[in-house]
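ok posting inputs for the KE4 job
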Amino acid sequence: MDHTLSKKAYAKACTCLPGGVDSPVRAFSSVGCTPIFADHAQGSHLFDVDGNSYIDYIGSWGPMLLGHAPAFLQEALLSAVRKGTSFGLPTVLETELAELIKEAYPSVDMVRMVNSGTEAVMSAIRVARAYTGKDKIIKFEGNYHGHSDGLLVSSGSGALTYQVPTSPGIPQDVIRHTLVCTYNDIESVKKAMNNHKGEIAAVILEPIAGNMGLVQAEPVFLKELRQLCTEEGILLIFDEVISGFRVAYEGAQGLYCVKPDMTCFGKIIGGGLPVGAYGGKKEIMQMVSPSGPVYQAGTLSGNPLAMRMGIAMLTYIKEHPDIYAHLEAFGAKLQEGMQAILDQYHLPYPLHRCGSLMTLFFTDRKIRSYKDVQTCDLQLYRTYFQGMLKRGILLAPSQFEVMFISAAHDLRDLQDTLIAFEQTMKELL
Ligand code: KE4
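and the output
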């Protein structure tokens, strides 16, 4: 495959964008190759500036549940653009999208629209602190909730007591309020809660984690977490930026039948335009300005273009529930085919899947938490990524991400992916 024009574009981008990109993972730094520059995409395929075609399993990191640029979404956007792009005044579109979210998520009485998942989580944490009058929060190792200061934290040595910022520029004063526990380990949560009785405002987690590769919360863990938070007067916040409308129309909370106090959304609810949202029980959300004292605002929050796309997207999915059956069927066939090849070559790598989310972990370890994921051989992942890329399969350029299958992926894509996978596995050996 020729990548001449991507290489040229990258060199030029690096002169004016840090790392040549607007989001780090796009730089392909952990898979050791120049990033490909997208030119256009349609359905399950993406085409780079050199004219190479790929079966796309990045899907813009989640929004493309239906594949790229379906005609109905194009129409929705064009009709919206003709009416103007932003007014700085309320529109009925915001209410319409909020009602669609409320209808799908019984735990959500009210919603506030923002412009990204980061903003949704950052705001939800502020509201939780105001509502409970407490400062500390618990997050989990390996969960990613966007790049707001208090959440760019991992556990240092001594785990709960020494938080370590995952980025410079974050004051110790901020992160000392963030406790980091171990995913799927309720004892680590009990310990944090006992060490900080009466100080914790909220627990936030990805109920189906997609930022350490795909790791699902165990049902008993989630149910015990819910119970603990209820008993301690701590708000339980589900970050469903990836899982919302992805693993099911009702999200992870629908699958697990566990009701959080607040939920954060993103990605699919914007149909590919910048949207985030947070919501929860009325008595909590009433705290948000102007109905309450918690300030949060945004020039383009709820903008008509993104609202129109979100409404079109959710309405389409709601009217075509068979989409989830298609995603499950494709995912199951892909998983089965890949597993057969791994077995044929006696490769022990765990293959996790939940609906249309999947990750192959390059380790022989059973994967339950971030520590297990850290045993992965990142060089092997790099070789895997490059092997699939040159065969026209575009995977996440990091072991710590997931594959996103869309409703546009078809049997031909399945066959082509499995052929490329077998050839790449043989090459790996
Ligand atoms: P954004 O601010 O990127 O819209 O959302 C942050 C966020 C919050 N919560 C979860 C569970 C998320 O997965 C994300 C963002 N996801 C990453 C991919 N794992 C976005 C890709 C990127 O950073 O470029």
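notes: Residues 23, 25, 61, 116-118, 121, 144-146, 206, 210-211, 239, 241-242, 266, 276, 401 surround KE4 (CB under 6 Å). The radius of gyration is 21 Å.
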